[in-house]
Design a protein that fits this description.
Length: about 325
């Protein structure tokens, strides 16, 4: 009988793990060290489960062991209709606890691959970026880096921060290998550890694991979906994977397609400051997209960080804005 059960995931989700916290260390000692052994000098836990004479020896599966909690310790969970949420905390932390849980299940099932649980993803991917700089020998044989760190239940990420990190051929073959047609190509990825490997590994993706509302107090985890995903990962036919992308070639999705966008029915440039480098312009554009599409989530995040409306006005040097009250009357 497997030890990687829903009960294990629920136990793991109770740990609030900001990078460098005692609770993070306790979590790693309890759940990671017995499987991976000691971490590397950067705090990454690495386990090579590539079988001798196996045709499937070129895959890397990863997650991260820090969360965006604003405090450490244990938290209370609520479960309703197989959906987990948190009680009295700034986030659930399924990002990326669910990814770790999936990896533990794959390791127990002896699925071939190199497994890495990174440190410090939430504060700038410090563990993965350091590992890339070290460039250990095993990395030279890896053709695909798969992060389990995406919200929802339908994404196989092909682009992160607007840059292609995985080919369409790989995305389709990954869905076919798992036998999950609901997982399809998604070019709207933001940034996670797999992005750090895009210049040295052919296919770098991020796969939906069933959480939503990440980084907010409204974060949830769908238990039915993550159990379904684990079953399909264990039964996957990895020989179906194809590797198409040339990591030495840079391809921007947004800027290759057009330098214009339709917003509110009007054609406009997304960012007009041509003096900025393309990476900065792209970051600014995607930040504007996030604020436009997720205003309540962004507002809650700012509030949790202690950023007030007045602070934003001052920092952005905005002096012609007046707030409205709940009756839509301008105040201030």
């Amino acid at each position: 009988m497997t030890t990687v059960t829903t009960t294990l995931l629920l136990d793991m989700l109770k740990y609030k793990r900001p990078e460098g916290s005692d609770t993070q260390k306790e979590f790693c000692d309890l759940y990671l060290k017995p499987v991976f052994g000691e971490p590397d000098v950067h705090g990454n836990y690495i386990l090579d489960v590539r079988l001798k004479n196996s045709k499937v020896n070129n895959l890397m599966f990863c997650a991260h062991h820090d969360t965006v909690h604003t405090s450490e310790g244990l938290q209370e969970l609520s479960i309703q209709d197989d959906i987990v949420s948190v009680v009295g905390s700034n986030c659930l932390g399924a990002d990326c606890t669910t990814g770790i849980w999936l990896i533990l299940g794959m390791i127990e099932a002896n699925i071939p691959g190199v497994y890495v649980i990174h440190a410090g993803e939430e504060i700038g991917c410090i563990g993965s970026s350091a590992l890339v700089k070290d460039y250990p020998l095993w990395l030279t044989s890896i053709d695909a880096c798969v992060s389990f760190d995406r919200f929802g239940d339908s994404s196989i990420i092909t682009h992160q921060m607007g840059q292609r990190t995985a080919s369409e051929g790989f995305s389709k073959s990954f869905s076919d290998a798992l036998g999950l047609p609901q997982l399809t190509s998604d070019s709207g990825g933001s940034y996670t550890d797999s992005n750090e490997y895009k210049d040295i590994i052919s296919e770098c993706t991020n796969v939906s694991v069933g959480y939503n509302g990440q980084h907010t107090r409204k974060e949830t985890q769908d238990l039915d979906y993550c159990n379904l995903l684990l079953d399909h990962l264990i039964d996957a036919d990895w020989s179906k994977l194809v590797f198409k992308r040339d990591p030495s070639v840079t391809e921007y999705d947004y800027y290759d397609r057009s330098s214009y966008d339709y917003v509110g029915g009007e054609l406009r440039k997304p960012w007009d400051n041509e003096g900025d480098d393309i990476d900065k312009r792209m970051d600014l554009y995607h930040l504007a997209e996030l604020v436009r599409d997720y205003p309540e989530e962004i507002a809650e995040l700012f509030y949790d960080w202690g950023i007030t409306p007045q602070c934003l006005l001052e920092e952005a040097n905005i002096d012609d804005f007046r707030f409205v009250d709940f009756n839509h009357r301008k105040v201030g």
